[in-house]
Amino acid sequence: MEEQAPSPPIDPTQSPQYKAMSKRVNRKMDIALLPFLSLLYLFNGLDRSNVGNAETQGFTRDIGASPDDLNLAVSLFFITFVLLQPPSAAVGRWVGAKHWITIIMLGWGVFTVAHAFIRGRNALIAMRLMIGAFEAGFYPTAVAYLSFFYCRYDMAVRVGLFYGQYAIAGAFSGSIAYGVFHLKGTRLHNWQYLFIIEGTLTILIAVVAWFWLPRSPGSAWFLNAEEQKFAAERILKDNAQYVAHEYGSDGGERQRLTRRDIVETGKDWKLWYVLVFNICASVPSQAFSVFLPLVVQGLGYSSIRANLMSVPPYVCGATGLYLFALSSDYHKERGYHIVGGIFIALVGLIITVTVHSSGAKYAGLCILLLGSYISPPLTVVWLSGNTPEPGKRSLVLGVNGFGNLAGVIGSQLYKRRYAPHYLFPSYVTIGFITVALVGYTAYKFSLQAVNSRKAEIMASKTAEEIEEERVDEARYADKKWTFIYGL
């Protein structure tokens, strides 16, 4: 009798019971963890962008500085903000996200309040440097923290919702500023109350964060014992084929950061390749996060109304990001979604600089922001999903923070001397967006070529050789022939 070939092993992650439990755990995390972490990022965005709102009320004039001093201060903010991201992300990895997020939030909250009482150019620069230093580690630490709770193809929607708070912060800041700037008969300037209110709220929410955030999925207070065990084991299985770590019973790692993590991060061609185009693509979102109220004011709106009219473009930015993030996870695809967002931003900016009526220019700004916020978070998710080693992943996300150098470019471009139409800055931004469009397309096809090469190598391997590749330390994490990059 002819022998039948053995049946392929059953993948437990495809069982109805596993899928139901995974959906239940994700739902609880989506209720208890994700909104709270998103709230923290909202305050991160508020305290970064509020100087633009304050400037519409004569902030630099009142403190004895000039508008160009504000551009310089914003540029220097991004210097500390960018340069300190990798070391701050490493500290966050070392001491734990729960503790580090609380510490850095308290720091930038205190210096936000201090903005209300500064005088002179040097004090302004010092405040922005300190805000940049404390805010530097928040985003990479928070995204790495989320990656310990959600699996690879559950991340884009969650990071999209999380990063969307950066756009919502612009809208929220404009709304708060619109209300605060209507105050009459006060002892302080209205912009001083803006800094005091937003900084104080940041400090309060930082204290709450220490009690709210769990250390790991296996110790999450909002999960029962069975769900905690499942959540911890699920993350281990998601990367078990490519990494080897010793874990505690709660899913927390014993060894959080190794020397090899640092070396392999520095040698990762994918990171440095995409970083250039991430900087180019981020120029619109970084520049308009601060200067949109001033650009809108240049369309003919009063200083107070310009803050209110800056809200709809930011809402468009958040909406575009959410829709693209949902589609990206559903289709398990990153590259074309990023390219699509960049293309929308390019169309919006071209409309803004070529039409003549204020209404059409404003519509162009809405389209511009609709696409501008898509590429940065999806790039983070792309890099995160293609870096299975948790220690290296934290450092990669920290180095990717160099993408915020776009803020230095934007702050130097959108100077008051180009007001009210800001044509020269817009033309330069079009150039950056075009380079990003070409670069990201090439990046996707580069990864596709590497995957084809890996598939050719693995096609000739036996089951024993595949298992040997898994445990062999010659190739690290994503460099293993068994790891296929997400496209």
UniProtKB/TrEMBL annotation:
| Compartments it resides in | Membrane
Q: Which organism is it from?
A: Cucurbitaria berberidis CBS 394.84
The residues covered by the Major facilitator superfamily (MFS) profile domain are: 33-487
A GO cellular component term found in this entry reads: membrane
GO MF, one term, reads: transmembrane transporter activity
* UniProt keywords, alphabetically: Membrane, Transmembrane, Transmembrane helix, Transport
PROSITE patterns named in the record: MFS
Tell me which Pfam families the record gives: MFS_1
Topology of the protein relative to the lipid bilayer: Multi-pass membrane protein
State the InterPro entries in the record: MFS, MFS_dom, MFS_trans_sf
> Per the UniProt record, which residue ranges are transmembrane?
70-88, 100-118, 130-150, 162-181, 193-213, 271-294, 306-324, 336-355, 362-383, 395-414, 421-443
Which protein is depicted?
Major facilitator superfamily transporter
